[in-house]
Structure formats: structure tokens, C-alpha cells
Target: Cytochrome P450
Amino acid sequence: MQAPNILSAEFDKSPYQLFENIRENYPLFFHEATNSYVVSRYEDVERAFKDPAFSSRHAEAQFEPVYGRTMVQMDGREHATNRNLVIQALGSYKLNEKFLPLIEENARELLSKFSSRGEVELVEEFTSIYPLNVIRTILGLPKEDMPFLKKWCIDISNFLSNLSQNPQVTAAGLQSRKEFQAYLAPIIKRKQQNSEDDLLSSLCIAEIDGIKLTDDEITSLAMLLFGAGGETTDKALALMFRNLIVHREQLQQVIADRSLVERAFTETLRYSPPIQWLMRLTLEDVKMTGGTIPANSMVIGLIAAANRDPRKYSEPDNFNIFRHDLDVNRAFSGAANHLAFGGGKHFCIGTKLAREEVIIATNLLLNSMENMQFNDKLPEEYGFFARGLKNLHIKFTPV
Ligand code: HEM
Model:
């Protein structure tokens, strides 16, 4: 017997039963197509993210061609300095006072285009635009630039998911990176000379121990923020609506008590994480459940399998926003007891922004769309690394 192929068509269609087989019967195996060891139990995946024996240097090959050198591929002091500069810049602008109203305005504007129509394809008309728009707004880039920003982000995302190495996809990703860089260069120069009240300006002036980011680093970071904060939140939001519409009684409870939106979002991240796996590189031999991973090996930590490990969660395959074994109060911090935002030193830095975005959008959508139902059959998921919905056709009663 062999472990299921995590890149097969069968897997793409329906990975969760296969994850169960992997987690129970093949807690550690070597996957030839990706040249990686695969771990899937919660305690092993968490360890791969938190133990310094696992490096993020693997990401040089994966991310650097399109983003340039960014924190995702750094370790140790270099990573800490770079990450802290961004956290400082993120913390220095006023999310609550200045940006929450703009985020709400973005959501309202998109919603107004379909709210009286009684039906919508939510991915195309809302989720695939809204989080990118939020990043654009926060960085301080003009609204009219959105169409080409979106195109560049799609090309770069396709490049990162191009496991079959399709040459056209590779070329489009690299070309979009070039155009994105050329677009940002004069804007960064301008903001360095005349600082404005936005994140890009904050990144231009942020410094730790006298170290400032170079122009190239600022450009790479801006592109990374679009990549890291766009597609992830897009997929999470659509998956949450899918999960709630399937579980109607929980949808009714969320409609009646909006403090439950945060629970619905957290349970969605556990049950259907938009990033299904992360990779690492071992710096030494590491003993895991099922054997030893040799030094210098690539490792895949299957987040989506770990998030349904019965050793961690009761009835893990049930979507239940009231579950007691998932702590909403720490779900968006480094102490989270799910792995959808990774863990350890590279734990996602956009969790609070993602939470605010999702809460704002969900409340507005629920206020305007009663009796939500799928317009046709159950929406299909797709994707190995990033996983979401191809589309989400909903019919509803306009309010
Ligand atoms: C539901 C939404 C989101 C999900 C599921 C998500 C998921 C993740 C995951 C799994 C990682 C860990 C990567 C690793 O360890 O290699 C990560 C890191 C990161 N995320 Fe998010 N993310 C989300 C939203 C955001 C947003 C809105 C931003 C924008 C501010 C963002 C910015 C980042 C950055 C910059 C990193 C790299 C951190 C580091 O390497 O130290 N993310 N995210």
C-alpha cells in the first residue's frame, strides 16, 4: 500500500477523506513529485512551524522569483528585523480610526452593485476584489489602478501554484512581477520625499536600530502584502459563506447574533483552511511520528489534515461554530490552537486585519441579503496549496 498522491486529480476534488488516510496510516512519508517528506498530525505540523530545526529557506526557490527577497524565506535575526519593521509600520497607522471606515466603504461599494438583484456570483463580484482593494487602500495606491493590480496578483498567484511548471504561467508571472515593480518604483520615490498617511509611507520611514528598508525591499513587501493578504482572505470569506449556507441552522444563529461572525470565521479557518500546506527545510535530522526526517530535506506540513486531527478536535469533520476545542479568543494570535495562520516565528502578521475585514463584510452582506441559498449545485472547491471556491452563485431576497 502506498500513501495517496497529494497532487492527484482525486485529491484536488476531495482531499479531506484522503487526509484522514494519510494522517492515520502514513503520518510520515516521502512524496516523490515534490521531493518532500509529508507530515499531517497536528503535533508534527505544529512542530515543523515552531521548531528552529525547520528553516524557511526552502521559500527562496518558491517565492523569490516573483516577490524578490522577503521575510517569508528568511530565518533568525534577518527575519526578525525585517518582520518587526513591517509590524512597526502596520502598527503605526491607525487601523481603527482611518482604515476601518475606508474598508467599510470598499465593501459597501461592491455590495451596491448586486444587492437589489437577488442573485450574485460572490467570488467574482465580491470576495476576489474586496481584500485586494483593502490592501490597495491601506498601502495608499489609487483606486483606478485596481484592474491591473488585480491582474498582476492573479498572474503571481498562478505562478506560485504552478506545480506542473506550465511555461506560459511561469512567463506571465515573471512579466507581471516586472510590471508591478516598474509601477511601484516612482510611487515609492514620491512617498519617500513626501510622506503620506498610508502604509507604504510608513514602510519608507520605518527603522529598527538605524536600519531602514531599501527601495527593493519596500517594493517586494508591497507585492507580498497583496499576495499574502488578498487571495487568502478572498478564499476564507467565500468558504465561510459556503460553510454557513450548508449549515443553515448555524447561519440563522449568526444572523441573529452577529458576535458569532468571528466564531464562524475561526471555525472556517480550521475546517477549510485557504492555505492547505506550508513547506520547510530541515537543518538537522528530526525525529517525528513515524520516523526520522534527514537533515536538508524539504518537508510539507499539511495544515488542512492537522486541523482535522481527532487527537486535537472532537468530531473534526463537523463544521461547528460552537466547538469548545477551538479558542476564538486566541485564534488570531500566535497562541492560536489551529494552524491556518501557520505558527511560530512566521505566524501570519495580517490576522487582525483579516478578522476586521471579514467581520465588516459579513455584517454588510447579511444585512442586505436574506434567505441566502445556492443558486445551483453545491459550489466546488479546487486547489492543492491555496484552496478555495471556483465560484459561489447565491440567490437571496434583497432587503
Ligand atoms: C484569512 C486570511 C489569511 C490567511 C489564511 C493567512 C495565512 C498565512 C499563513 C499560513 C502564513 C504563514 C507562512 C509561513 O509560515 O511560511 C502567513 C504569513 C503571512 N501573512 Fe497571512 N494570512 C491571511 C491574511 C493575511 C493578511 C490580510 C495579510 C496582510 C497584511 C497577511 C500577511 C502575511 C505576511 C506578510 C506573512 C509572512 C510572515 C512571516 O514570514 O514572518 N496575511 N499567512
About this structure: The mean pLDDT is 93.
